[in-house]
User: What shape does this take?
Amino acid sequence: MTTNATRASLVAATVAAFMLAASFAPAQVVRSKNGNDLRPNGKHQGIDDPKAPPAQDIADDNAGPSNQASRSRGSGNGINYHGGPVMLGTVNVYFIWYGNWSGNTATSLLPTLISDLSGSKYEHINTSYYNGSNQHVAGLMNLSGQQNDNYTYGTALSDQNIYQVVASHCPSLGGCDTNGIYFVLTSSDVNETSGFCTQYCGWHDHSLDGYTSSGPDIKFAFVGNPARCLSACAAQSTSPNGNPGADGMASIIAHESEEAISDPLLNAWYDSRGEENADKCAWTFGTLSTAANGSYYNFTGASKTEWLIQRNWVNASGGYCSMSY
Ligand SMILES: [Zn+2]
Assistant: This one.
């Protein structure tokens, strides 16, 4: 919450009003049948999974699993650890540009986003997440490769098609790197039929979550072009880099990367509603600055490019949404 002058509040209110129309209905607040945390499905919705593991409190002790049910849930920071891995060290990011991106500035803009995020105070928020051996996320990313895909599966893609795109490209793109996140970035004429623009703007998952039964467990994400549905998947229709679709993708890429790193197999960090770290701060932006064209931004990295990206959840001091840590 900004304590700044009236103008800042006005700006926040203006964006909030747009946001209200833009955002989807919040996830239902429900408890799982067994009292454990709902399990995330990577699409910002908790699943009531009777097999979902109980939250662990590794910050306080290393007691065995038999002791977990009676202990306090999670870290007291509003998000709980469930025993799975996080992505350590420098995380490799791969972009697969699906469809027709010819002449779209997204292809030069979004690679810059990854280098701007890496090592920033914003990305440092993710270092508040750790695994069962108390190894923390590094807050570092590197764009390690990019390829194009010329509509191999047409313009209406299923979740399985997204995985198939990843599987067909990853052998020659980092060698199906298990410390990588493979992003499928679709052009605005492409739909993702399980709910792009109506249920979600992006999602992340991993290959052994039902996409395939063998091979390396590849982390991947779908990010559609919000130009297809600006009112649903972009925070503003005039944007700092003059490309509302690409600027909207920047916030979604930030969101999915934060979750893929802190909860790559959907069994590490999420709250009782099944919300992962970025879900808890979705469509909130903190203090805004005004770009030359009158649009808003809230983050600049090494390149000085202006970005409007959502805040992320800090897993410390009780937990809070922030742009830095
Ligand atoms: Zn999410």
